[in-house]
């Protein structure tokens, strides 16, 4: 009986150690994959989301300003007599 509980204790200790090792391996793989993905994205010269949002707002503002200028140009101008 003592022999069986020693074996079970050893097996549980091995299982705990294996889980710790797998957890470390998982974190390492995630880190490596993340670095490679970032490297690929940087090579593609993609725009960041915050830069995109700033440019989007600027373009929307310019479109509205352009429309307003077109409206002013189309409206009849009054001549001073």
Quote the distance from N terminus to C terminus. Answer: 117 Å
Please trace the helix and strand order, writing H or E for each element.
Answer: HH
Count of distinct structural domains: 1
Which class of secondary structure composition applies to the elements? mainly alpha
Strand runs, count: 0
Quaternary organization: single chain
Round the mean pLDDT to the nearest integer and report it.
87
The share of residues in extended strands comes to: under 5%
Number of helices: 2
Largest sheet descriptor: none
The poorly predicted ranges are none
Helix content: over 70%
What does this structure look like?
With 81 residues, the protein is an all-alpha fold. It has one domain (8-74). Helix content is 85%, strand content 0%. It contains two helices and no strands. It has helices at residues 2-44, 49-74. The longest helix is centred in the N-terminal third of the chain and has 43 residues, at 2-44. The relative contact order is 0.04. The model has no long low-confidence stretch (mean pLDDT 87).
